[in-house]
TrEMBL record, chain A:
PANTHER family: RE64534P
UniProt domain DUF1989: residue ranges: 47-213
Pfam families the UniProt entry points to: DUF1989
Protein name: Urea carboxylase-associated protein 2
InterPro entries noted in UniProt: DUF1989 (IPR018959), UAAP1 (IPR017792)
Signal sequence coordinates: none
TrEMBL record, chain B:
InterPro entries assigned: DUF1989 (IPR018959), UAAP2 (IPR017791)
Organism per entry: Streptomyces achromogenes
Name of the protein described by the UniProt record: Urea carboxylase-associated protein 1
Pfam families reported in the protein's UniProt record: DUF1989
Start and end residues of each DUF1989 domain: 4-169
Domain of life per record: Bacteria
Amino acid sequence: MAATATTYGARAHARAQEGAHAEAMPVVPARDWPAPPCEAGLLVWAETVAGGNYTHRVLARGTELRLTDLHGDACAHLLLFAADRPWERLNVADTVKVQWNAYLGEGVLLLSDQGRVLASVVVDTAGRHDALCGTSTLVRNTGRYGDGAPQSASPAGRELFKLAAAKNGLEPRDLPPSLSFFQGVRVGEDGALDFTGSAGPGGSVTLRAEQDVTVLIANVPHPSDPRPQYVSTALEVLAWRAGPTRPGDPLWDATPEGRRAFLNTAEHLTARGLA
Amino acid sequence: MKTVVPARAAWSSVVRAGACLTITDLHGNQAVDFLVYDAHDTSVRYSAPDTIHAQGGIFLTTGSVLMSNEHTELMTVTADAVGRHDTVGGACSKESNTLRYGHHTFSQHACVDNFLAEGARHGLGKRDLVSNINWYMNVPVEKDGTLGIVDGLSAPGLSLSLRAERDVLVLVSNCPQINNPCNGFDPTAVEMTITEAAGA
């Protein structure tokens, strides 16, 4: 009789797996992460997300979130919602229009549709990002790679976002256009897009939550990735307690549009008794 | 069917598969904020990123296909007298206007309010509003990424036509913006014409 033919044996087999290690996994508690970028006790989220996979978390205002492209072929597709009030959510059009720039990088504020800041980009060592092309879909990945379902070998970003959204009580109708980090696109004079790809292994982006936010991340190839194979490698996700941007911080006053966005955010949080 | 949409007003209609919607800029330089949904499943709706990605560029003109968030075809631009329309800037809102120009603009008209009011007539709510097309609006992107709404390329009487690739619901806000050149700081009327497919 096999060891797992009984409930006792199956239980023992399952329990014997504790402590196993995979490259892609959450480390719980996060303070056990081997090389913390801050005092270990401040870590609240430590995870390596596999290529073709997704993750999600609710982060408190003032939390910093660092995404790292470990091997050079990660692409972090990102959506943000005001936690517990998901009708306020990332607005990519407002983000680029209000800040007069189509490209993401250090100092860019990720704006909600309510004239407020959800998060700010405080560090960027990669410089290859995209606010224009969104993520991949089931139809497109099926045409390109043969499949796009979440359990396939080539999951589509939108399909993973739907799952991450569902786990936060949200539906496909709640998913607006997303941003992507670590795979860049540039616009020519005639409006044509040029895919610039990755900056290589080790690039990172640090976001600072300026409200309590629900974060959805899908790590899948950029839709403009020209390679015929589905190439998607691990994404490191670390978050730690820090402080939100406050008056006096250079970012607060960097632009008049940004200052008004921070002021609107502060007014909103003050009215709610949250700041 | 021909309808004049007054300055600042909203408009919506179902356009049947194969039918043609023509938008005419009656007085020139008027931005027409535009959203389109699958009429039978409004969770399938216009996706700016899918459209941009599918055609490899940010400007719309003849031949551009408006793609849904599921990467299916909603409408195709079949004629365009202007040559360039915006996919990036989205709609003005009372809230974003406080960032763009100052808090003194909060009481002014804005497209998101038009979309919310007109969308509600079809059971659509705030979560159904996504980045939209701005017909006739000119938004170039410089080498360093700087983008902005600049003077339009349209002129009185110029028009564009769209063929519905399936039954679609179209929502329009005839942009009331008075703080940028998208409509020459002076909103004016546009005309919507729906021509049914031959034999329909």
